[in-house]
Specification:
Elements (H helix, E strand, L loop, with lengths): L1 E4 L13 H4 L3 E4 L8 H5 L4 E4 L6 H5 L6 E4 L9 H6 L3 E3 L6 H17 L1 H9 L23 E5 L3 H12 L3 E5 L8 E2 L2 E3 L2 H7 L2 E4 L13 H4 L6 E5 L8 H10 L2 E6 L19 E3 L8 H19 L9
Parallel strand pairs: 1-2, 1-3, 3-4, 4-5, 6-7, 6-10, 7-9, 10-11, 11-12, 12-13
Antiparallel strand pairs: 8-9
Length: about 325
């Protein structure tokens, strides 16, 4: 079996091994693949692995030997799933490999806003503590998480873990999700409507998938009624935000801070409004990328392909 990995670098920039996958066939690795080379590089492959390289109907139709597409991530919007299914091609993903890594990034952003970590560290390195007349000072308002209300949009695997950690901090947790009954109680989490969640929460963290219904979910209409100074955390997908509306809310103080690991276009355009917005902290879509998570990713990717070869496919998404 010829196996082609189209964008292998982010999963394994050289610190891990592909040896387990190499045992399953002829493995060809490309660090990155531009769209115009996807078909050429995938010729004669029975299996291709992709993280962010688009595998649409045109690509699928150009690869008659293709039997398997392994997405090296949880989200599968890079593959035309119905078309793959119509061609008898199995598509798998990697579920639950990065949950703990993403959760710790969520709280890294929350804690950064709570203790003003970045501004205070920057001030120290600029010499402001050296020249201070006092033994202690703070850049910005320091906030205690205990007793604050944490709103979670999407109470799936990651959302549930965020809820557990929030509860451990002594936060009151509410959640919204299409499968939650408003007014219901889920463990220590109260289910509310989306509008109520944004209205009553001190912090909102997004953990819903990107769909037609959730694109631009956070916009000026939703933000018009939020608690003044609310913090927004997005480790889900960039297009969940209308970025101009969020930037405007940061400028007016309607939002007190944004912690984001994702943007609508990645890498971002230089004119992305969030790059110049105040109280906005952005990490480069690496919440998933701890070494431990990437080890799990490669192991699950190997298990998925091995199960397919043995005609016992697992983690099938189409």
């Amino acid at each position: 079996m010829k196996i082609v990995a189209l964008d292998a670098f982010t999963a394994n920039p050289g610190d891990l091994s592909w040896s387990a996958l190499e045992k399953l066939g002829e493995l060809v690795l490309y660090d990155r693949t531009p769209a115009e080379l996807t078909i050429e590089r995938s010729q004669n492959a029975e299996a291709i692995l992709t993280n962010k390289v688009i595998v649409d109907a045109a690509v699928i139709d150009a690869l008659p030997k293709l039997k398997y597409i392994g997405v090296l991530a949880t989200g599968t919007n890079v593959v035309d799933l119905p078309h793959a299914r119509s061609k008898g091609i199995v598509v798998t993903n990697i579920p639950r490999y990065s949950t703990e890594s993403v959760v710790q990034t969520v709280f890294a952003h929350i804690l950064n806003l709570a203790v003003q970590l970045s501004p205070n560290t920057e001030a120290v390195h600029k010499g402001e503590w050296v020249s201070s007349p006092d033994f202690s000072f703070s850049k910005g308002k320091l906030t205690e998480l205990y007793g604050k209300r944490l709103g979670i949009v999407g109470l799936g695997t990651i959302g549930n873990r965020v809820a557990q950690v929030g509860a451990a901090f002594g936060m009151n947790v509410v959640a919204y999700g299409p499968h939650l009954s408003i007014g219901g109680r889920y463990g220590e989490v109260d289910a509310v409507s989306l509008e109520q969640l944004f209205r009553v929460s001190d912090i909102v963290s997004l953990h819903c998938p990107l769909t037609a219904a959730t694109r631009n979910l956070v916009n000026k209409e939703l933000l018009a009624n939020v608690k003044e100074g609310m913090w927004l955390i997005n480790t889900g997908r960039g297009p969940l935000l209308n970025e101009q509306d969020v930037a405007d809310a940061l400028k007016t103080g309607r939002l007190g801070g944004l912690g984001a690991d994702v943007l609508s276009t990645e890498p971002p355009q230089a004119d992305n409004p969030l790059l110049a917005a105040p109280n906005c902290y952005i990490t480069p879509h690496n919440a998933w990328a701890s070494q431990e998570a990437r080890v799990r990713l490669i192991q699950i990717a190997t298990d998925n392909l091995k199960a397919f070869i043995e005609n016992k496919p697992i983690n099938v998404v189409n």
